[in-house]
Amino acid sequence: MPVTASAVPRRPGAAALARIDHPVPAVDPADASPHSFPDGGTWRTEIPSVEGPEALAVVLKESARLDVPVHRISQGSGVWMLTDDEITEMVEGCAERSVELCLFTGPRGTWDIGAATRTDSGGAGLRARGHDGLAGCVEDALRATALGVRCLLVADEGVLWTLHRLRAAGELPADTTFKASALIGPVNPASYAVYEHLGADSLNVPSDLTLTHLTEIRRVSRAPMDLYVEAPDDLGGYVRMYEAAELIRRGAPLYLKFGLSRSAGLYPYGAHLRDHALATARERVRRGRLVLDLLARHGADGGMSPLGSRLPGALRRFPAPEGN
Asked: Is the pLDDT of residue 188 over 60?
């Protein structure tokens, strides 16, 4: 189906405010992103924190019931927290609906024996510690792609570069994409461009970046951006639904991520968290419906990529060195 952009979106409350002579800031066309996905769309959707086949089934059922188009589903606990059968079931479930499945590589620093991650400063955060941490992420990537997964979440620059080199060398399928985690998300244009050059195909940015920050990033990179319209509490708990149209205008090509604030964490997920995982999966889809309704009311719902779209288009990369 062709992608058609909407007319100039209606700004929230603008007409009513104008009638009482309350000034409304003008839209500056120079702030708009000049980029789009290769299919011509400016935005796609993502449901995050879908931690296993049962949660996936809930998301797919609820998205059909509420008519919420889903381009990508992502999981946060990691490849290593799923059995082969569970991964295969998720791959097949997503394939039936032409939804991209993205699984997190591990292990991560926050779960191993490194004490620095438990200090007030957070130490090295989620990064893979030592050779074994890096090798574990590589093992996860090899296992997941062998089972049909074609999108991997990464929380370490070295892991990202290593996986990109493996992809370039044919050790990972050429159509595998890498998504930089929100927990290492770049906060300035230079760092965003570096992640693109290291092999990232889409990049989570922190949800507290301003609209001006998004415009600044788009002046240096066209790599797709992922942004929580509603962020979980450990990422700030921000709710930016009313900004969705402007986030797309400034940040395209953009994945709108429907997270959930005021909700206990799920990672690493297990059956002891089942009820919470299913309830929050269902509510994330509902939050997506609320965002899509807002876009429709403001005349900003045009420009969505066709369902099934997943590739980012041509991006810039550092040349891979020979050997080590």
From this structure: yes
